[in-house]
Write a structure and sequence with these properties.
alpha+beta, elongated, five-stranded antiparallel beta sheet, 48% helix, 675 residues, 5 domains
């Protein structure tokens, strides 16, 4: 048994069928590549094995496997899909089976009909990628896939000769460009129920927000450099120390983990009427990336949110903005905020006692430290604000270290952090501050969200990253309500005042690029994010409201669905008339190859050579030699040259005008001599 691999004959020496098959397999592999992270390992292995096997058969021109083998593999694949997902229905098992069917169908490429099935499955798989992500990178990759599939489709319709891949790709590109106006028109005017990104759930894993907090969690989020939200202010952006984006408020502590006091859906949520807003309002626009919670992390203190298409929102008495479902799609909306405010009822007897609870048996040394502070004569009659200042002074002067790698803490984590190791990230300082304040009989709670932003706007938007995930504290002061206290500012003031986040060590490639040009990585990232932002705003965010705005710009005063439908029908009808006119004109055009053929046949008829449209040039050259002998050799040579130009490997796209003129002149001269 010969196990040696076949020698690669070279792309130009492959038979056309083998060349076209290898090209199609390459397009299929490119189309399936973005699904690598979504498919089970057995499906990836099966796909790679089948594509490699089919490529081998194309090179050696080997026989394709029998149908029963394919049926057996398909049955095994269906069983493995059922084992992997527990069902054959749904997005993940459906995509898995589509990939299996696509790869197995390549082993049945015996006729053009089989190729058309592969093309159909290929275009279907292009669409499945947008069930997972509609990012600019995925769109560009699928644009290449569509071009490749169209090129393979063109090759399947060109059975004569051996057209080059460049010729087929050019024709496919021209065909796609002809259809582009219709696609743009449908994109602009076709009615849509919701945003285009409503199906994919991009970015759901590893965001900086959570409905619970355990020490070290936000430090892990700080390693994530992805964008959490973009903000564009109507006027000058607030300073970095005012950029607090409020997320979940955590008031219940079990000794290890912090959680919301009443859950995300409290029984009675007020519309924020307990907030007293000070100073002018700040209008801003938010583009919020998807995350796992029904929370809108908005600027403190946001008093109003405009209607969000397809989503209902409300605000709790903690001034936390909630959605009626988890945010699993990119949102764009406007809001209004006041960076100066008072929060909570301020009357006598309004102290929220539920924010004083501490779990029994945890962190006894910290509680003892707080009791000793309370016994200090200087703080015997201190107000909550004075006590908070004393605790913050202790943080700033007792040798605490702000670090991304504080290590793992044990059962009494607050004790270990506050009195022993003194190393932590923002959640360590916020949690310890709240525990100490509660031990001092002052209601306190943790607020999570984001703080700060990139120093330079990108495309007019202030960029807030997951690495800006932050935790701070609020304590209760009678007469003032809830007062923000950020212990991180006491130990790392640059983190708050200048948004200087702690950064992890760069990777090998990023480190090498920074060594060559320190600003190169930042410039490349900024350019890409600006482009990606344009994609989000102009394409993914184009929805029903933007359609009506377009109609207003076209002169429709009060647009509705009827106006949109009439404009769409009128535009499509106009395009249909243009297409029909072009088809009529194209039908009456004469193919240049047909024009050359008719010219040559007329010259041959004057020489008495019987010729029809079905006769190839080589046959006509043989008839010339038989009738006129050596005198017809120049004409016969021109006909053989024409056959190479028309049907050879390097066939011309258009007829050779010089050859036509030379043939007519030589035929006229031969006719004169023969007469």
């Amino acid at each position: 048994m010969d196990l040696t691999l076949p020698r690669w004959p070279g792309w130009s020496r492959l038979p056309r069928e083998g060349r076209d098959t290898l090209f199609l397999l390459g397009v299929i592999a490119w189309t399936l590549l973005p699904h690598v992270g979504h498919l089970p390992a057995w499906c990836l292995a099966l796909t790679a094995l089948v594509l490699a096997w089919r490529s081998h058969l194309a090179v050696v021109n080997g026989p394709l496997p029998g149908r029963w083998l394919l049926i057996g593999v398909l049955a095994v694949a269906a069983g493995l899909t059922m084992f992997s997902y527990g069902t054959l229905l749904g997005k993940e098992p459906g995509v898995t089976m589509a990939v299996v069917l696509m790869t197995l169908k390549t082993l049945e490429l015996r006729a053009r009909r089989d190729a058309f099935v592969v093309f159909f499955l290929g275009f279907f798989l292009v669409l499945t990628h947008f069930l997972y992500s509609q990012s600019l990178l995925v769109a560009l990759a699928m644009l290449v896939s569509v071009w490749g599939l169209l090129t393979a489709l063109v090759l399947a319709h060109m059975p004569v000769g051996q057209p080059s891949l460049r010729q087929a790709a050019t024709l496919a590109g021209r065909t796609a460009l002809l259809g582009a106006p219709i696609m743009v028109l449908l994109f602009l005017l076709f009615p849509r129920i919701g945003p285009l990104w409503g199906v994919p759930q991009d970015g759901l894993a590893g965001t900086g927000l959570s409905d619970r907090l355990r020490l070290g969690a936000i430090a892990e989020a700080a390693l994530d450099d992805r964008i959490a939200l973009r903000v564009r202010f109507d006027g000058t952006a607030p300073p970095p120390e005012a950029l607090y984006f409020r997320g979940p408020v955590l008031g219940r502590f079990d000794g290890q983990e912090w959680r919301p006091l009443a859950g995300f859906w409290p029984a009675r949520a007020t519309p924020g009427d307990q907030a007293r807003l000070i100073g002018p309002a700040i209008g801003y626009e938010v583009t919020l990336e998807p995350h796992r919670l029904p929370v809108l992390p908005l600027l403190e203190l946001t008093s109003r949110v405009d209607e969000i298409e397809g989503l209902r929102t409300r605000v709790t008495d903690e001034m936390l903005w909630l959605a009626d479902r988890p945010v699993v799609e990119r949102l764009r909306f406007r809001a209004e905020a006041h960076t100066r405010f008072q929060l909570g009822p301020v009357g006598d007897g309004a102290q929220p006692r539920q924010y004083l609870e501490l779990p029994p048996g945890f962190n006894p040394r910290t509680l003892q430290w707080a009791a000793e502070l309370r016994r200090d004569p200087r703080y015997a009659r201190a107000t909550p604000r004075e006590l908070a200042r004393a605790v913050l002074r202790h943080i700033g002067s007792a040798g605490y270290t702000y670090t991304l790698a504080p290590g793992t803490y044990g059962r009494d984590a607050i004790d270990e952090f506050w009195l022993d190791r003194k190393e932590g990230f923002c959640e360590h300082f916020a949690a310890a501050f709240v525990v100490v304040m509660r031990a001092l009989d002052v209601p306190a709670r943790i607020v999570t969200g984001y703080q700060g932003a990139d120093p330079e706007p990108v495309d007019g938007y202030v960029v807030v990253r997951q690495s800006a995930a932050h935790a701070w504290a609020e304590f209760w002061q009678a007469g003032a309500g809830w007062v923000r206290a950020d212990p991180t500012a006491a130990v790392a003031p640059d983190r708050i005042a200048r948004s200087r986040n702690l950064l992890p060590e760069p990777g090998l490639v990023a480190g090498a690029m920074r060594a060559v040009s320190p600003a190169l990585v930042d410039q490349l990232r900024t350019a890409w994010e600006a482009l990606n932002n344009r994609w989000n705003q102009w394409v993914l965010n184009y929805s029903r409201g933007q359609q009506f705005d377009l109609l207003k710009e076209l002169g429709v005063r009060a647009p509705d669905w009827a106006d949109l439908a009439m404009l769409l029908i009128g535009a499509l009808s106009s395009l249909a008339v243009l297409g029909a006119s072009w088809a009529w004109w194209d039908r009456h055009r004469v193919d240049p190859w047909v024009r050359q053929r008719d010219t040559l046949l007329a010259s041959l008829a004057r020489l008495g050579i019987p010729a029809g449209p079905q006769d190839p040039p080589g046959t006509l050259a043989r008839r010339l030699r038989e009738r006129h002998g050596d005198a017809a050799e120049p004409l016969a040579a021109l006909l053989e040259r024409l056959q190479v130009q028309r049907y050879g490997r390097d066939a011309l796209r258009r007829p050779d005008a010089d050859l036509t003129r030379s043939f007519v002149a030589a035929a006229r001269a031969l006719a004169v001599r023969a007469s």
